[in-house]
Queue: 2 jobs
Job 1
Amino acid sequence: MRRHDRNRGKGAALRTGFQMATGDFVAIQDADLEYSPMELPNLLIPLVKGEADVVFGSRFLSCAPRRVLNFWHSMGNAFLTFVSNMFSDLNLTDMETCYKVFRRDVIQDIEIRENGFGVEPELVAWLARKRLRIYEMGISYYGRTYAEGKKIRFRDGLRALYCIFHYNAPTAPLPVQFIIYLLIGGFSAVFNLLVFLALLSGTMSPTISSAAAYGLAAALNYTLCVFFLFRHKARWSSVLELILYVVVVGLVGIFDVWTTGSLLFLGIAPWLSKSIASMLGLALNFIGRRYCVFPEQGAGPWRPQLDPHRKLESIGEFAKSGPVDSLLEIKIGDPIGSDPAKNCDIRSTAIQSLYSVQAESFFQGQVPADFHPPRGNRQADYGETSSDSP
């Protein structure tokens, strides 16, 4: 059992747990029991059969019991899932689900950076980038109210939205990247225009005003791109990246100054001249940043399914290679109960005889066509918990 000296958040707990994992598969189990551990065998089936690298348990695909709670909370969940799918090019129904079950080699190959609830969209981003075989299966959900101890807040939703941008945008589909850059570039262009007009109203000439405004706007643009869109040092070192950025800025800057001066010479109003030059420079800046300054290798094709003839014919065949206890690891912050026989006591390093009777028959033979694990999830069934962190 590994405990942090203080509560560092869900992401930090998962990072520690994943590093300690030694089994073939690793599952995430929140200690508040909104999700039933008895449903984990269902999620294991595609992994054990070699069909999946990751399985998500979706609260919105299941015919199993699902507690009805806050409307706006569910709308926020749907919105975050939609935005995540748009960036990652997945079609998940429940991005924020706790139940994510991985092959151990897959999850240990991911370096988790988020310490809080932002770990959920971060994990989805990394999994999508690696083009792994991701499956979803329906699960039951026994949600808690805030009065019962639920800890997710509006600020966590904002953090999740930022994480979707930050971890997905560098490899997002090109149209999505361009839309983001339109927002960044549009904001920078407005800043460019305001600075230009402010300098022009003083003693500076149009040429100097245009160049100074462009330089300041370029610095702002770079900061926003690294923060929201592109990955710093995507391919080049910091020095080479800076040199390339200055070259791109310089070339587009020359174009901006020339275009602005030419339009002014033709008698077009200063604000309109600068606006036209900024719009043209917007497209050139995106091309230069995307393909020269921050070139990101594409995610590539999705990992193919195994040849059907190579798939394991039964879960029992896989189980013969080792003990049941080595098949699954569950990472939580606190043990769910004290009596493994009665309370399904799950430790942070290895599962302790989970489903004592069900597991024996489940892993030693063919999975029955009508197999359905118990779906009870009341805290009284497993022991009271006081933590909302994993």
Job 2
Amino acid sequence: MNTAKSNKLLKAGELAAQAGVGVQTLHYYERLGLLPKPARSPANYRLYSPEALRRVQFIKKAQAVGFTLEEIKQIFTFQRPGAVRCRGVAELGEKRLRELGMEVGAHTVSHPILARMAPDAAAAEIRNSKRHLEDIVGAPIRLFAYPNGVPQQDYTAAHVRMVLDCGFAAAVSTAWGAASRRSDRFQLPRFTPWDGTAPRFGVRMALNLLRRAQTV
């Protein structure tokens, strides 16, 4: 990597072109406090650092998933020295996920294979993962995913009872199949889109619909 090139100051037009925005958008971000005031050349041109490019790219990505400019400004505030970063960013992210119809779920603390653990240790992994996430996001954690998730191999009926006892509302395995109203809410099948091409994904999804989900 050419360090000198990566540290080169960018004029407004260069930054705008690389970031895929208009020059007026850069000026707008400056007025909102999303971009720091740039240095000036002897000819009074704005000169932006490479960090400004990374910021604009982040702003675009955050907007694409639904964050407002005001929320993005808050995220940048959390990056300042002394700011309470993790909780603030997590709360914003969790709020946005909920607005998009998604929830944060638990997955144990250290991702062990529950079936290989002593019962007390497995219960603690499940219980503590829920508590830690609730402390971070400040909201109930209702969903759980069994690590690796193969029924009987990675978790057993005892672990399903542990999840229920911890107060979860539902849990997912990695068993093939399609969920229905008759499915066990604590052993919902989960389809993983790992295929490299759309046709392969479509074929595997169709086969998945024909399977009866395995449970313990």
